[in-house]
Amino acid sequence: MMLTVTQKNLLLEIGRDSVRFDEPMAAHSTMKIGGPADAFVVPRDIETLKAVMRFAVENEVPYITIGGGSDTLIRDGGIRGIVIHLREGFNRFEVSREEGEDVLILADAGVSSGAVTRFAAEQGLSGLEGLAGIPGTVGGNIITNAGTSLGWISNAIDEITVVDRQIRELTMKKKALEFSYRHLRMPRSTSVVRALLRLKRGDKAEIETKMNGLLEKRKTTQPYGQPTLGCTFRNPEKGGKHGSSAGALIDEAGLKGIRVGKARVSEIHANFIINEGGATAKDVEILIGLVRERVKEKFSVLLETEIHVIGEK
Ligand code: EPU
User: Fold this and answer.
1) pTM of the full structure
2) Is 246-310 assigned to CATH 3.20.20.70?
3) E strands of 100-255, at which residues?
4) 101 is catalytic
5) Residue 253: CB within 6 Å of ligand 1?
6) pLDDT band at 240 (very low <50, low <70, confident <90, very high)
């Protein structure tokens, strides 16, 4: 659904200079792919965010909140409705309080996870080691429960604050949240606005060693710094005949380096798809389909995507 002129003017009144129309989403994707969003809003504060969400709900305009664009494939036809990007206005974090050995950090959803992780390392705070080198924002990493074998962001969550479709600001304790592998159960119409992270005082050198080790591993075993969306597929259930790494399965199926258009399966880690420059979302989706088909044929394992796909074809 396209926005009418009246709706555009209303949205401009609410969001002022934080609203842009026909924004190319490729600029907001780590893979540099994505057609235009009808409207793109970077709310400067929570009141503006709520006003934009209220406008969308009342006018039946679809909306979606995005983070760092590191886990979402945006289709070439772009996004109808409003994309809310929590960045400026939602980019602060601070030590909130201390409880014995615990240090609680309050972080806005738009803060890059890297900034909080580096701060934790500098301060000798343990709990975010597994996030070293992970792109994206705190909000995005929470929704996708980002992490590695060294730990997930959910391990460090004490509580999160969201704004839901009824425009209620709700704070939820960790025990009320259903985190699982690369997932948090949460309606897509709910925006995470901040999180309280519970970290522990630890040994600074030990924390730094762990983080540096992980970073080095990522740099040698993954196409670090290239235009990708991270791992494309979720690892299949453990205990299967072929182990649990989707990357290893794709590799064993001989698919490293295969291309559709300008999208290529990485030669470094087969669970990554690279945009060689000018790849379309269609290229990526066809390549994903091809990989699933070949892995299914060879190993009888149906891979599920870890990346989220949004927008119009
Ligand atoms: N392997 C291959 N070929 C490949 C890729 C991997 O043989 O092309 C082998 C490796 O040699 C290793 C095994 O598969 O023996 C496991 O590989 P790795 O340690 O890279 O772990 P992974 O299961 O493939 C997971 C996460 C990554 C995360 C790493 C490190 C998923 C889908 N992937 O990968 O997460 O960085 O562990 O902890 O859970 C992401 O979610 O975006 C992501 C990259």
Assistant:
1) 0.96
2) no
3) 102-108, 125-126, 147-148, 151-152, 157-163, 169-173, 179-180, 183-184, 191-201
4) no
5) no
6) low
